[in-house]
Amino acid sequence: LAGAVPEEPRCTVERADASLTYSLFLQRFAFSRPVILGGVTDNSAFRALCTREKLLAAFGPFPVRLSTANTYSYRKVDVPFQEYVEHLLKPQDPARLGSDTLYFFGDNNFTEWGPLFQHYVPPPFRIPGTSPAYSFGIAGGSGMGLERDWEGIG
After folding, report:
1. Using one digit for the tens of pLDDT, what is the confidence trace for 59-107?
2. Which whole-number Å values give the CA distances from 72 to 98, 99, 110, in the listed order?
3. Superkingdom of this entry's organism (predicted)?
4. Cβ atoms 36, 125 nearer than 8 A
5. Is 5 exposed, middle or buried (0-12, 13-18, 19+ CB in 10 A)?
6. For 27, how many CA atoms within 13 A lie in the half-sphere containing its CB?
7. Collapsing DSSP states into helix, strand and coil, what is residue 66?
């Protein structure tokens, strides 16, 4: 087919479940290749606290720092979390430049969010000599109404 876009290859990262032991994790993955861990922790309580309604009730008035992702037009804007959710959180318009889109990541002081993060259960495996790094983002689903479909991701 002329002009057809080739299909991207499927993810080749190996998956493991709760049967993976720490010693096997160290031997097969820790220093050599990535792995997707599934079912090794129960974060249902954390996810329940990350609904739109619960996050707005708990953190709506707190300021968040939004940033553009483009290095050449890097700017920062501080707005209340509620304003971000209700007015700025939406899928990126394909007609707009990436540097015009504001994201919630990076420069935030997450002290206010501590009570929420205390409910997060981290994976049980650690790579010796390193410190864990966690990322928390909030996104609206592409093509979905923000009033009903969004999730907090931890």
Report:
1. 999 988 888 766 666 778 899 999 999 988 877 777 877 677 787 776 6
2. 11, 8, 26
3. Eukaryota
4. no
5. exposed
6. 5
7. strand
